[in-house]
UniProtKB/TrEMBL annotation:
Principal localisation: membrane
InterPro entries in UniProt: Chr_Tranpt_l_chain, Chromate_transpt
Record's protein name: Chromate transporter
Family per record: Belongs to the chromate ion transporter (CHR) (TC 2.A.51) family.
Transmembrane regions listed in the UniProt entry: 100-122, 129-149, 161-194, 236-261, 267-286, 306-326, 338-364, 376-399, 424-443, 450-468
Keywords on record: Cell membrane, Membrane, Transmembrane, Transmembrane helix
Membrane topology: Multi-pass membrane protein
C-alpha cells in the first residue's frame, strides 16, 4: 500500500505531521514510550529490537527504511545509539516534546534502579552473601562481553581490510596505550579512505521492507515538517550547551574546581563526546581513568558495576553512574557521603545524556534530507570495525581482573603488557565463566537470565566456602 492508498484518517494525520502537527496524540506516545522503557534489557541490540517491534511492526507508526536511516545516524554519533534512536523517533512522531519524553523515559528506569543497586552495594557489599553474588556476576560479564565481540565482528568485519583495522585498534589500545579518542578518529579516517579507494570493501546495509499490512503513519519517503535553518541550529546549540554546562559550573563554584564532583562532571562530559560504538567501546577507557588515574574504585568493582548495569533497563553506559556514586561516596568533601554519592551519580548521569538530546535535535532535520551518503557510511564502517578491537580489549581487561587476583603491567619498549599472576587464578570464577559461556553461546540464553544463574552460583559458592571467589 502506498501513501496515497492510506485510509483518509491516516492521510489526514500524515498531512498534519507535514504541517507541524503531531502524528499521534502525545499522551498515547508517552504511554508507549513508558512501556518500552521497562523492556530495554539486553544491550542496544535488544533495545533496538523492542522499538522495531513496537513502532515499526505492531503500531505501524514509522516505516522500516525511515527507522533504519535514523538508526544509521545514531550509530555514527557518540553516545548510546538506542537512546538516541528513541529521541529521534520521538521527534519524528511528536516534535521536540516527543523527543524529550522518549529519551527521558528511556533512561529513567535504569537511573532509579542503578541508584538503588549502587546504594545496596556500598552498604552491604562487604557481606559474604553480597560478595558471593558479585563474584558470580563478574565472570558472567566476561562471557557477555566476548559474545558482544562475536556479534559485532560477524556483522562488521566483511573484508580483510576491516579485520586488519579491528586488529590494529586492539593492538593500539592493549599494547601501545593509544588514547581511545585517537583510535576512533583514526578509524573514521581509515573508513573514509577505504570507501574512497576500495569502495567494493564496504557492503551497503540493505533496509528491510516494512512488511505486509497498512502503510506506516510516517512513510519512508515523507519529509519532516521541521526544516533545518541557521537560526534554529544556533538556538538549539546555545540552549543545549547551557543546560549541559550549568550544573558543572555550579558544582565547581560551590565545591571547588578540584572537588570530585567537578572532576567527574568534566571527565564524563568528555567521555560523552567519545562514546562511539556503544558503551562497550568506551568502557575500557573509562575503567582505565576511573581506576588508575582517579582511584574512584578498584578493577574488581568496575566489573561489578558493569554487571549491575547489565541487570537494569536502559543503556549500558549507565555504569558511569555507579562509578561516580562510589567515587563521590569515598571522597565527599564537606558533604555527607550519601548526599555526595547521590550528587555525583546524578551529575554524571546528566552530563552523559544531555549531549544525546543535543546531537539529535541539532542533526535530525539535516539527516532527514540526507539519504545514502557514501562518505558518512564509509566513516561509520571504519568506526564499527575498530569497535570490534576496542570491545576485544575490554573483554581482555575484564577477564584478567575477574579471573586473577593480581595483574601487573610490564613495559617492553613501546609496548605495555598487562600480565596476570597465574598463581592467583580464581578457580571458582573460572568455572562460572565457563558456565556463562555455555549459556550464552551454546544455549543462547538472554543476558538477564545468564546473570541470574551466575549470581546464584556465586552466592552458593560463597555460602559453602569454595575458594576463588
Amino acid at each position: 500500500m502506498t501513501a496515497t492508498d492510506q485510509p483518509s484518517g491516516l492521510r489526514a494525520r500524515a498531512d498534519r505531521a507535514a504541517r507541524g502537527g503531531e502524528v499521534i496524540p502525545l499522551r498515547q506516545a508517552t504511554r508507549t514510550w513508558f512501556a518500552i522503557s521497562w523492556q530495554t534489557f539486553g544491550g542496544p541490540a535488544g533495545q533496538i529490537a523492542v522499538m522495531q517491534r513496537a513502532l515499526v511492526e505492531d503500531k505501524r507508526w514509522i516505516g522500516q527504511q525511515r527507522f533504519n536511516h535514523a538508526l544509521s545516524y545514531c550509530m555514527l554519533l557518540p553516545g548510546p545509539e538506542a537512546q538516541q534512536l528513541a529521541i529521534y523517533t520521538g521527534w519524528l512522531l511528536n516534535g521536540t516534546r516527543g523527543g524529550l519524553i522518549a529519551g527521558g523515559l528511556f533512561v529513567l528506569p535504569g537511573v532509579l534502579a542503578l541508584l538503588a543497586l549502587s546504594a545496596l552495594y556500598v552498604a552491604f557489599g562487604s557481606t559474604a552473601a553480597v560478595t558471593g553474588v558479585f563474584a558470580g556476576l563478574a565472570p558472567a560479564v566476561v562471557a557477555i562481553v566476548v559474545q558482544a565481540v562475536s556479534r559485532v565482528a560477524r556483522r562488521s568485519l566483511t573484508h580483510p581490510l576491516l579485520i586488519a583495522l579491528a586488529a590494529a585498534s586492539f593492538a593500539a589500545l592493549a599494547l601501545f596505550s593509544v588514547p581511545f579518542p585517537a583510535v576512533i578518529a583514526a578509524a573514521a579516517l581509515a573508513g573514509w579512505l577505504i570507501g574512497r579507494f576500495k569502495p567494493e570493501t564496504l557492503k551497503p546495509s540493505g533496509g528491510h521492507g516494512a512488511g505486509d499490512g497498512p502503510a506506516p503513519l510516517i512513510p519512508d519517503d515523507a519529509l519532516h515538517h521541521e526544516q533545518p535553518s541557521r537560526r534554529r541550529t544556533w538556538r538549539i546549540l546555545a540552549l543545549g550547551l547551557l543546560l549541559w554546562a550549568v550544573p558543572v559550573v555550579a558544582v565547581a563554584a560551590l565545591t571547588g574546581a578540584g572537588s570530585v564532583f567537578t572532576t567527574q562532571g568534566v571527565f564524563f562530559s568528555g567521555t560523552a563526546l567519545v562514546t562511539f560504538g556503544g558503551a562497550y567501546a568506551v568502557l575500557a577507557y573509562v575503567a582505565q581513568q576511573a581506576v588508575q588515574t582517579y582511584g574512584w574504585l578498584s578493577p574488581k568493582e568496575m566489573v561489578s558495576g558493569l554487571a549491575l548495569a547489565e541487570t537494569t533497563p536502559g543503556p549500558l553506559i549507565m555504569v558511569v553512574q555507579f562509578v561516580a556514586f562510589l567515587g563521590a561516596y569515598r571522597d565527599p568533601g564537606a558533604l555527607d557521603p550519601w548526599a555526595a554519592a547521590l550528587l555525583g551519580a546524578l551529575l554524571t548521569t546528566w552530563v552523559t545524556f544531555v549531549p544525546c538530546f543535543l546531537f539529535i535535535f541539532l542533526g535530525a532535520p539535516y539527516i532527514e534530507r540526507l539519504r545514502g551518503n557514501r562518505r558518512v557510511s564509509a566513516a561509520l564502517t571504519g568506526i564499527t570495525a575498530a569497535v570490534v578491537g576496542v570491545i576485544a580489549n575490554l573483554a581482555l581487561y575484564f577477564a584478567e581482573h575477574a579471573l586473577f587476583t593480581d595483574v601487573d603491567e610490564k613495559a617492553l619498549g613501546p609496548v605495555t603488557l598487562a600480565l596476570p599472576d597465574l598463581a592467583t587464578l580464581r578457580p571458582t570464577a573460572l568455572a562460572i565463566t565457563v558456565i556463562a559461556a555455555l549459556l550464552v553461546f551454546t544455549f543462547r540464553w538472554s543476558v538477564l537470565r545468564t546473570l541470574g544463574v551466575c549470581a546464584a552460583l556465586g552466592l552458593g559458592a560463597a555460602l559453602v566456602g569454595l575458594p576463588g571467589i
